[in-house]
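Reopening this ticket.

The earlier resolution said the output was attached, but the attachment link was broken on my side. Pasting everything inline this time so it's all in one place.
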Amino acid sequence: MPVQGTISAILRDRHVYLHVMDHDLKSKRAQVLAFLASDEALANRVLQCQAKRVVLSGDLLKARAK
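Inline output:
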């Protein structure tokens, strides 16, 4: 049975639970992105390379990041 502190914490943070994306419902913990712009740039680069059928390696990504 949940205690009062647990219920209060859930109610206090209800906006986090109400605005969860459908694909995030299956994950056990929410991942917070510290560098959203960098993550988006990396995702775009990966998609571009997939479209061109380029095999990505860690070295290629590091060179592109510099």
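Reporter confirms the inline version is readable. Residues 4-65 form one domain. The chain has one domain: 4-65.
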